[in-house]
Amino acid sequence: MKRSTYQNKYQILRYILIFLILAILVVVLGSRKNFGPLQYAQLSLDGLRGGAIYALIAMGFVIVFNVTGIINFAQGAFVTLGAMFTVTFYNLNAPLPKSLHLLLSVIAAILVTTCIGVLVERLTIYPARKSSPLTLIIITVGVFITIQGLSLLVWGADAYVFPAFTTLEMSDRVFRWLGMVIKAQSFWIWGIMVLVLVCIAYFFNFTLLGRAMRACAVNRLGARLVGISPGRMSLVSFGIAAAVGAIGGIVVAPIIRPSYDMGLSLGLKGFVAAIMGGLVSTPGAVLGGLLLGFLENVAAGVTKAGLKDIFAFILLILTLLFRPQGLLGVRKTTVETDGAH
Amino acid sequence: MNAIPRFNSNRNAIGWFAMTAVIALLGWVETVQPMGVDFADLTNGIVTMDTMVRVAILTIVLVGLNLLMGYAGQVSLGHAALYGLGAYASSILCVRSGDLLGVPAWVLGSWWWPWLVMLIGMAFAGALAYLVGRPILRLQGHYLAMATLGLGIMIYILFRENLGFQGQHITGTFDGIPGVPRLRIGNFEIWPISRYYFFAWIAALGAIAFGLNVISSRTGRALRAIHDSEVAAQAMGVDVASYKVRIFAVSAILASAAGSIYAHFQTTVSPAPFSFVGSLELVVMAAVGGLSSIWGAPFGVAVILIIKEILRSRLRVVFSGASGEHEVIFYGILLVLIMIFMPEGVTVGAVRRWRLWQSRKREQVLSPAQPQAGVPR
Amino acid sequence: MSRKIHHLVVLLTIAALIVAACGQATPVATEAPSPTDTQAPPPPVETQAPPTPTEAPPEPTPTEEMIGETYKIGFAPAITGPGASLGAPEHETGQMLSEQLNAQGGVVGPDGVRHPVEILIFDTETNPDVAVSVVRRMIEEENVQVVVAGTTTGISMAIVPIITEAQIPYISMASSGAIVKDPDTGVVREWAFKTAQDNFASAQWQALYLTAQGYTQVCHLSENSGYGADTLAQAKRAFEPAGIQIVYEDSFERTGTEFPQVASVQTSGCQAVVVGAIPPASSNVSIALRDALPDLPIVHGHGTCNQDHIDLMGAAVAEGMVSPCGKVMVSDTLPDDDPQKDVLVKYVDDYTAFTGKPVNTFGGHGWDALMLAVTAVASLPDGLDLAAQRAAIRDFLETGVKDWPGISGVYNLSPEDHFSLGFDSLTFVKVENGAWVFFPEDQW
Question: What is the pTM of this model?
């Protein structure tokens, strides 16, 4: 333990050095475009908003990975489903005030997506539970492809519109502060991300089911011996991951134009965030998401914005090469015996 | 003992005869058109020469992917991009290198230049795979899947974004690079499509032969040992990571070669087929063909491409308003079902089941102590 | 021992294939269609296939009228994929025309023989790879007389080599001038025609507008697509002579959640932003620009000319945005003596009746391409073989299309010009109260 704190101190210095080099690079590149503090602040804020969405999606990856050891590539599909179901329910005619209608649509969409997540687990993961993780990962890829195809069949290739939560209109309220522009939806996104994080922490630390899932994550055989059914835990983890993914899709819906294929790129970014966070810890995933959003947006801002997506995947490769245990993780030799969360 | 035929040594020979006969027969139908029947008429216009050439090209990619997935136990989610590297290497160096690198016109016009470029592309893809794979494959777990996913999307974006350069046309962004020349040997042009069909299948059979050689070589034995138990292999002195890296590099080289052949077939190279979705499609094909079966590769490709053609031409009759992209639903369901019920792939799974059934039948006749024979690895 | 056998077999195999390949050094042409071939094709793939294409037309026709072979037009828009918002109206137009042609009982040739016309609809999925495969299928398996395909430039450019090799007339619905003319050598592509206005014409309108407003420094944001890349290239060509400088250019992703480009637009000091994108990307970037820089004028390209563009960003945001568009968007405000007026009004009525949606320019590109094809097949005398029919269609398109009013403009095709629409086929429009209105030059 002592040795690891010593290492940590050393590593912190190294991170500060890397950060300084990056900051200088960014400022040099930004100066070519006459960027002032205002632009950096705006880019960071926007980046953190995108990052919060990635964080929400990344949490879904982490929950499933922890309990089952599967990287669930179907997570992106849950994002699409969350957004598209909300749009569909909201577009139904109902004699309700707009805000209540929106709230009900959101709840219904989360419930439906959760059911689909549970169904996916029962229909595809459970029958193959004895297969290798590689097989299970490929199965989730298949699930993703199927759901995306079905979404195309149901909703068509069109983009849909969805009202902002604050105004319940298409155009959102915009706050202007010191020249910066912040949409009201950004606060919703940040707020909901924190809420989800707190709920998940509470669930895993203070409820029996959550603790059973943690036990399953730490040692599947041991958990089984004390009477926890890994199959049921896997089911619950898929349900939660689907719900969290759906929430991610719903909060982002007003700022993009949801369509059947929105989950692909968001899911991949969420996946990168989860890897950056080490794949086993929810706070790590949130940190990874925020950092990813921030770095990606600033890097795209100071260089060519068309290359924005590439930065996420450069970060992915760098993480895998230099810190495969993630930002918060510890080397495999001292792997978390005190639980993943 | 002789009562049980041992297929293991002769199985490949049978495979060769069957495969060659089918390919040659189909090619003969197309070129000679006996009784006015051309190749596509055999399947009522569903499977065309175009499809068959694609099957051959993707077979080359799949042999590499099968080696990687089946023998090294790693999945690549970015193989389409490695395939694209070959296609782009061929198209850039054959079409644009005069402007970009100042390659003289007599070289560009020569028949051997495209072949040389193909080798350059293969070397580049292999080197890239080696460099990325080496540090990542030293880690336990499925990190290669994640790394190849990232790598694949990065390469795709670079293709699409003109490698990040502004102004000068290198990859031509979305429109890609038109006008890739046809392949020639001396003055013999490998075109019309029936000639290219033979060329692509010769290359595909070459890849299969190569793949079979790899798995029956020292490397192959080491890989099988790794596949059975990594720990045990390590204990026996097998350098697990180094074998995995080598096989990853080999699969990248095969993918790149296939990409070059694709570029000269299609004559226009654009980024769309090399995206993440393209990589997923390759994984589906590998799953259908069988993860550790080299012979499964052409079957995996053929099954998926033929399903695709059938869906493309017949789906509309079933679902009005449905169109091409819906076919992915069937891929998805197919992939899930195969992975659940036959995780070793359809061809291998079917053969294994058949053999099992046969040996059971034989067990009833012979003494029950007979060892099971001919179970494919 | 078995290894040796194995190697021997490999060698023999490859040798056998080489012999087989070279033995037929002069293969027969890929299609040698006999009349029986075209009489008994596999059931055509069509959305609303009539039970028999030879059914009697509803009009009272002379009973002795001869019914000739069925003409086939291969039609492949991008029904799905990133180009779907352009391809879907083209697809709907194709379905509508197919229905109309069936109702009319096809076309009557110059020799009085009636020919049913089938429009075979395929999807390119906005993927050049699929497009090439689909077009090869149309040419070699379905034996179509003419190919109408390619919603976007990239797709069309991938198709061009295929149709040139197969010697089949091809009409593209995409915008780039490179489809009909090799930009490097200036040689007209023999078999390729197109019906969508050049991005260059669009950029010329933009330049005119920007100059009229007195803007000399602009930013250009283009979508990550073939269309976006071409708008940028054409804007550079058109803006420079007009003295307009592009001070900042960048691209953006259709699925992006935030737009770091806006910060660069802010600091680049440009007076207006030119956006080269199609909905929904055009709407997303407009919102981001409006939020951060509410007073900056935004000029779109003619790829945005459909209602989706306004609906997806909301009328309030779209208010005041301008773009060059085809006349179809403002058909009711055109003067009566406009040669296109009749065609436009009929198309608008038919399209809205058929789909229940407002018209857009892309459906118009599809209509022009298909109707050119229909007009061309109607000119064929009976009894030609397929290769001769294809050549005759090409010749007709080059020589027979004079003052031909379409949706996009009045066509005058010639051997030197396989497109012929220019600057004046577009008009300028503005968004007012959530709808497109005519915005003539004197109001600028």
Answer: 0.83
